[in-house]
Design a protein that fits this description.
Largest sheet: 6 strands, mixed
Number of domains: 1
Number of strands: 12
InterPro entries: Metallo-depent_PP-like
Number of helices: 6
Strand content: 15-25%
Distance between the termini: 28 Å
CATH topology: Transcription Regulator spoIIAA
Protein name: Calcineurin-like phosphoesterase domain-containing protein
CATH architecture: 2-Layer Sandwich
Shape: globular
Oligomer: single chain
Helix content: 10-25%
Length: 271
Amino acid sequence: MKQYLRQGQGAYHGLVSSAITMMHRLSGHWPGSLLPESLQFTALHRTHRHAPGQRYCSFGGTRRIELMKKEIENNLLTLSKTGPKDLWPSISNYVLQLSSSDDPESPVLFMYFFDSGGGSYPEVISNAQAEWFQHVSEEINPDSRVPEVVFWHIPSKAYKNVAPWLRIHKPCVGSINKERVAAQEAELGIMDMLAKRSSVKAVFAGHNHGLDWCCPYKKLWLCYARHTGYGGYGNWRRGARILEINDQPFYIKSWIRMEDGDEHSQIILSP
């Protein structure tokens, strides 16, 4: 992951891997040890399994809340949050503001992070999470003036509606389409909310290691990350989705950067 990021310079750059929290267990390290020194990062929960009857979903014997608390306590550079307690056991629901380098009080972009469940926890963005998004977005961005992007691990059912058939053709952009979309169990209102907000430009998901495309959905984009680490299933070449956010003039640009430095599938997600 350090290699993917050190090759990027200019504007605001970010990396979207298929499941950063998966790396906690597989590598034996928390994300901060995987990233270049002095680089801030965020994480959200992905598919976890826990013992039947246990209140909090866990991973490798560790409860979800303990995983996130450990990350926050052990990494001074993390921007991750446990999220509102009234949404627990759904962890890692939070919003971050990307500010202008010229004016820290002036927002350039709002980034929303959601726990999409998994294991014995329902694989959904719940009604409560959707209501939380509606409340927070209307409070911090009431006129939808500031662009917004969304991150969760398991793709919503809308991804199935826009998925390419066999080859990836325009207007979709990407390089691999090797499996079917493994979507959330149900659609409980979040996608309607996102589609109605003109400020929402894109949603980013992981979960499917054999997919890396972006496709339009109504007035926004639905994008996959790229399988970055060496845990999990599949032998496809490793890479990462890079995001570039420019302040003046504003735009969101994205592309795939491979482990060997090759770059492809560039797309502008917002003018």
